[in-house]
């Protein structure tokens, strides 16, 4: 089965990195189209041997991108178009219909209560989303929380499939040699207690809570992994509070940086899944968090190393102070990791493609059938 994944952009981000991981484990033959901003994740996907097409969209209203996407879909003879993120869902569903592809699937990564991908929801955005959703066959929600929001919007529950984000837990296993190497690179002492954050630097992620919680805690360093529009304000805040801190910016070695940490702190209020929490647990870290649907939808025994806190600096300050005194050893992999195994979840997405094709009464041709049809067309 040939699948074209259409995504808004491919700079470092949760949905973008999740797509790369999915591509590594899917059985379908896939290519990727980035509407805009083909950044570091695009290069990584290409290094994995998968074609990435740049559509060159200039803005949300750049309608000239639509015919370019239609031509790409037609030329690639794709069986399924799978869209990711709001702009790609809108344009990708329309383009797939215009290109004659009957099967379209979307993954909804970032639908919050009042925002979608960080932008404030409006009646116009909701109407556009629902109008184009009807052009597809199914929408994958990355958590039960997102599924409930979709149905509250008016998407029929029969068209919503809950398939969570996944993780390759082996990539995050604690490595003491890696820890020592990265700490030396960053100028962090081998015995210094490091409080980590992995997040896009935007207001909803509340990275400032991490810094405020560390104010007045000597000998503790903040390791902030990620970038975004709040970068300058957060570095200034760290200086104002006297918090010893390292800001790495975007990184393609999150697993290594997690090895360098002693605890992961995630005070975000806007999570639709909470992948950073799962990654921290895979690295054997104790994790403090405020909002993580990925854990909230599992029994408490699935993640004994995670602790839910109110999103206040004082609550985090007390919990971090306790962790600093106790300095726990690395934790064993929790049962939650089995639930979010990427190989199993990728197989479920492949199965969804096949099920959608059967439901619409159209058989997806095999590779040999497709080859015979192409040769026949070439002779004619």
Explain how this protein is built.
With 380 residues, the protein is an alpha/beta fold. The protein has 16 helices and 15 strands. The strands form three sheets. A seven-stranded parallel sheet has the order 3-2-1-4-5-8-9, with helices on both faces. α1 (14-25) packs across α15 (342-359), α4 packs parallel to α5 (123-133) and α8 packs parallel to α9.
Strand line-up of the largest beta sheet: 3-2-1-4-5-8-9
Which word captures the global form? elongated
Average pLDDT works out at 91
Under the CATH scheme, which architecture of the largest domain would be assigned?
A: 3-Layer(aba) Sandwich
In CATH terms, what is the fold-level topology of the largest domain? Answer: Rossmann fold
Unreliable sequence segments:
362-380
User: What name goes with the CATH superfamily of the largest domain?
Assistant: Glycogen Phosphorylase B
CATH class category of the largest domain: Alpha Beta
Give a short overview.
The chain has 380 residues and is α/β, with parallel strands linked by helices. The chain contains 16 helices and 15 strands. The chain folds into two domains: 2-166 and 341-379, Glycogen Phosphorylase B (Rossmann fold), CATH 3.40.50; 171-339, 3-Layer(aba) Sandwich (Rossmann fold).
